[in-house]
Description:
Layout: E1 5-8, H1 18-27, E2 32-38, H2 50-59, E3 64-70, H3 78-84, E4 88-91, H4 99-108, E5 112-117, E6 135-139, H5 154-168, E7 173-177, H6 185-190, E8 195-198, H7 200-203, H8 213-225
Parallel strand pairs: 1-8, 2-3, 3-4, 4-5, 5-6, 6-7, 7-8
Helix pairs in contact: 2-3
Amino acid sequence: MADFKIAPSILSADFARLGEEVDNVLKSGADIVHFDVMDNHYVPNLTIGPLVCDALRSHGVTADIDVHLMVKPVDRIIPDFAKAGATYITFHPEGSEHIDRSLSLVRESGCKSGLVFNPATPLSCLEHVMDKVDMILLMSVNPGFGGQSFIPGTLDKLRQARKMIDDSGFDIRLEIDGGVKVDNIREIAEAGADTFVAGSAIFGAANDSDANVYDTVVGAMRDELSKA
Length: 228
């Protein structure tokens, strides 16, 4: 079976008790903590910065932290997130004047690097930097807000990206972000994804009195992935 990883997005978590939320979701079997970083410039929303990443590390979170930069420009903030404990740092081609240089900066800062593609952004620039990416993230919604519906056309794009990865021979993860739920995660996996960002589908299912509901949702996702 493929090495599937589930990456809950803390964008949908309860920020008043974020450390506890992340602990609970990781105990439920999630693999990666996904950070949605928005700057109210590249996308029309404002979220979190390196201090939150550092706080989770200080809290004791040892799982991989996957930082998705929806910011422009990206180079100034990359070293800050690396210092704060990021494992992966991914950014949009539109957020960098020099994509190759920014990818190199991520790796030079000690992190794994990646590129993120919006629904209408072509994958063409990947052809020139496959040796510098550890993660390709396809957005299956337009970035900026949680809780949106999956854009079906992303499945064909996933197949295209999977072929590019397989043909390259490099060890690159293929991540999907936006509208991922129990009822579509298997189809998404069959199209080529191996890493699944889910925010509202996981955190939105819980309430203060029932943290164990994360077990149910993550378990149901695992069950669907086992059939892919």
